Amino acid sequence: MQPLERAVARALILLISIVLSAGCDGVSKSPLAEMSPASAAPTDPTPAAIPSSPVATKSTWGWQNPRPQGNDISAVQCPSQTVCIANSGMNLIRTTDQGANWTAVSFPVRGGATALACPSTTVCYAASASGEAARSNDGGRTWTELATGVIGDSLVAISCPTVADCTATGSLGSIVVTTDGGNTWASRRSGAAYYSAFGTSCPGTSTCFLANANGLLKTVDGGLTWNIVLAHNIAEITCPSATTCFAGGVQTTYETNDGGGSWFAESTPGATFRGISCSDQTHCAQTAISPSGDGILLATVDGHNWIPTASAPAPTAFISVACASGGAICIAGGTIGALFLSTDAGQKWRELDSAVTRYNFEAVSCRNRAFCVAVGYNPEQTALLVALTRNGGSTWSMTHIPGDESLTAVSCASSSVCVAVGLNANVLTTRDGGATWKLNELDSGSVLNMFVGVSCPSDSVCYAATQGGLVFKSTDGGLGWVKETNLGIQLRGLDCPGTDVCYVASPVQDPNTPVVLTVIAMTVDGGARWSTAKLPGIRIWSLSCVNDQHCVGLGTCQGRGCNGYQGAMTENGGATWTGIAPTETSPYFVSCGSGTSCVAVGAAGAGAIPGGIETSSDGGLSWSDQPIIDQNLLRGVSCSRGNCWAVGDGAAILTAAI
Predict the structure, then answer these.
(1) How many other CB atoms sit within 10 Å of the CB of residue 431?
(2) pLDDT tens-digit series, residues 268-277
């Protein structure tokens, strides 16, 4: 497959898994179809802490990769030389030992924190995406929500020169100030709509600067009036003193030493203008990016000359940086959970986070609560993306397997035998617990020949399905394959609870009606014969079968042609299917570790928030939301003996005891 064809194929198969749609509230039970030996006619339905080595606890999801967490870090602050705070999705993380250990901190404001400011070692403020703010009186350990009066705008910056005085700005021009510690807030827009506002810095209680696409603004009367003092596109501003400020512009940093009266340009190639901070008037750090896309940190020791002092390979990019005033501690945050710390005002940095990879995982399979294999795509195209753990995720390691393949699914029959399949019709097999792997390419035709699912019910028998409708079977643990059948429909989810029993789902559009439907194909004789059932009004992407009688299928279906259900389940071997509706999420992938316990992952809301996780304690009939800790799309889940692992974009690996 040529690079262009590979890109098109990958885009085609991934398109299905990134269409986000909301589920429906409530749970009702409705038969969807009767399964017969032949194709059946459709039946209308009736409508906490994040330690350095996280340990899963009951119903609490924790990070195993990256660590301490994998959300983008766009806001950081260090109220002291040992305490630092960073935003983490909807909540915060906090360290009291210069980043050696991090603890999750609950944040009370909807949308999470977008900016942080700590005017003292104990008092900190946070701006939020919802337009509200929050205050902490204990160095970021606990937070109280503050009503700012901002409506329809996201606060993106906040600066507090004292514990009582703060100015917060919004991306659509909102400017609010408080002079009483956040109890009351007053608007300071003065009728001017400063759109595309970014950073703000207030060196005094009445003096503030506002970075803006139309120029750098300054007020000397607490925000009542604003004037442009630097006519350039400015995205970030920091003022270590009443007279010295640094403003981030396009590939250029501007410095003033007279409170903004005059400015001179400093060359800072690659500066991304997302973060700039100073510990004093001469020692500063800011974020940048190299021509090849690597993240860079720049620093100056004289306030004039900037040099690169740290780098991180793509896809990591630095977003935020903060230096403790009057000290030597600086912290930088970036994409996919990147965290760097400097103890000499930005001259040298050490990485606080750890990750076996930063690339996207597509699927995971676990056995015996200890052995898991996660697979995905390595855009460097030099080796396959395969990560493995033998201790339940306490440590993960990468397996170097030369090749260029996007692995889409994996199934481990035991802690010895695993099989993964990919978009380029390749099959990857290990029979010694991942010590060695064998890569084979199968002849899967020329139409939609990418593999979308694999299931190994035993160490010898495996089934694999292509999007184009082919089902392959192996009887030697994935080494040799035979094309078992062509079902003639586009396939998606596959699970085989027994060596002779297999279920596969096909979310399709009925060409004769506007109703969408899913076709479930099933074999009970090892693939010799297949029967089908049509489930109208539902799209199922993923199947999980506890045994040959009990299967749960989930997907997402919203809008015209959908009946309100996001999945279906059978408890009688496919004779009948019951419509099920998870709460608010758009679940794509499901895994049932037992007849009662299931987990679904995907996205939460109508395309709003990826990272949704739902659990069921009654075998898939009813579902409950779990707190969202990962804002990346989750693409795979596997449950084994009471523990579950979920994987997704940004190399996310999450785990919980269920």
Answers:
(1) 20
(2) 888 876 799 9
Q: Quick check: 576 and 603 in contact, CB under 8 A? A: no
Of 312, 404, 297, 425, nearest in space to 358 by CA: 312
In the block, tokens 């085989």 appear at 496
What the block records as the tokens of 387 is: 């990560």
Which of 617, 630, 618 lies closest to 658 in space, CA to CA?
Answer: 617
Q: Write down the CATH number for the domain with range 3-47+357-657.
A: 2.130.10.10
- Within the chain, all domains assigned CATH 2.130.10.10 are found at 3-47+357-657, 107-234
List C-alpha distances in Å: 65 to 268, 358, 397: 33, 9, 11
pLDDT per residue as tens digits for the range 388-414: 999 999 999 999 999 888 999 999 999
What's the rounded Cα separation, in Å, for the pair 361 and 376? 4
Distance between start and end Cα atoms, the chain: 41
Residue 53 identity: S
Q: Please, what is the average pLDDT of the chain?
A: 86
- Among 235, 306, 312, residue whose Cα is nearest residue 274: 235
Strands (E) in 123-263, as ranges, are: 124-128, 133-136, 144-146, 155-159, 166-170, 175-178, 186-187, 197-201, 208-212, 216-219, 227-230, 236-238, 245-248, 252-256
Continuous H helices in 231-388: none
For 517, the token pair is 């439907």
- Give 643 or 608, the one with higher predicted confidence: 643
User: Does residue 492 sit in helix, strand or coil?
Assistant: coil
Strand order, beta sheet including 271-278: 271-278, 284-289, 295-300, 307-312
Mean pLDDT of 110-118: 94
C-alpha to C-alpha distance for 48 and 565, rounded to whole angstroms: 32
Task: Tell me the average pLDDT across 626-655.
Answer: 91
Whether residue 86 contacts residue 78, with contact meaning beta carbons closer than 8 Å, is answered with: no
Q: In which band, very low, low, confident or very high, does the pLDDT at 12 lie, cut at 50, 70 and 90?
A: very low
Integer Cα distance of 640 and 77 in angstroms? 40
SS (H, E, C) 362-421: EEEEEECCCEEEEEECCCCCCECEEEEECCCCCCCEECCCECCCCEEEEEECCCCCEEEE
Q: Are 220 and 226 in contact (CB under 8 A)?
A: no
pTM for this one? 0.85
Average pLDDT over residues 596-625: 82
pLDDT of residue 57: 38
d(CA 377, CA 421): 12
- Tell which residue, 235, 326, 217, has the closest CA to residue 276: 235
Amino acid at 421: V
- Architecture, CATH, for domain 107-234: 7 Propeller (2.130)
Of 405, 404, 399, nearest to 422 (Cα)? Answer: 405
